[in-house]
Amino acid sequence: METTGGAAAREWKWLRSREFDLGFILGIPALSFASVGLILSFPQLFWYVLAIDLWILGYHHVISTYTRLCFDRKSFAESRFLIFGLLPIVAIATLAVAAVAGVWIIVSVYFYWQWWHYTRQSWGISRAYRGKDRTALFESGRLDVAIFYAWPVLGILNRSAQDPGTFIGLPIKVIPVPQVAVTLTAVATVVLTAIWILRRLQAWRAGRLAPLHTLYMATHFLVFGAFYVAVADVTFGWLGVNIWHNAQYILFVWLFNARRFKDGIDPEARFLSYISQPGRLWLYLLTCVAITGVVYIGILGTLEAALAAGMAGTVVLYQIVNFHHYVVDSLIWKQRTAPIRTTLGLD
Hints:
The protein is mainly alpha-helical. A two-stranded antiparallel ribbon has the order 1-2. It has a two-stranded antiparallel ribbon with strand order 3-4.
């Protein structure tokens, strides 16, 4: 598929295929906006939509991390510390902080860390699309970084200035941010977005537009702008960006595994390579569902019952899993490493 602009035609650099990439870039945000639109129209449905998000996407997106860590001997050998060493460290630190300061600090840390985690995942995906078309015209250096982070930074400053008091029904304390800081950041964000649009038009006229990267960046701006700024309720907005993030992660990990095993079944990773073959996305998802049941119902459910955890204890247990996932993700998806770039087919 090609698109014309200026003097030359540009090839669409798919990460996988037309159907996958357009579904990934456009379909996932559409799902997020439809979900938030539903709960804005019928607020009483929030907890039902949240439950569906957690069980269909949220828990599975955490489990997807482990397909990168321990589903084959090589990955398991390379990830022993992340599995057996890091998890106890995260658990002890989280329990200690909760015991000293209370559950509010765990919720508050989650509030800011999940924002950073979502932003960094989006950055990585944008880099993957950018890396597929290195001959296109892109911003560079600090301007590139400023354009990408403008909407996420505006979003978290806006939520901090709101000081909602509760988040997902739990107490939270935010970093004090004056409204004037939000206003100045909003002005800077509008200016940076205008620069980006002008640069995209210049690239199109020169025949050097990267259409998929441009499309992805537009959805990135839209998601953070809508769910962190336009939607007044902090929890409703969080749910929208959480659905977007979770679905992205599940599909991107499957894409990575599918590209890793594109040559067929690998004797060194027989099971993972089998469920990562074309046409077996359903089996990959079913595997994650099964593991989710073991981890979240079996292990965490047993711990909750054994400790008579209550709401505070449940929050801490689940955040231990989330925090471990955040740290692991920051380490295993660095695109500057050769294996990641080679697998994703990036220049």
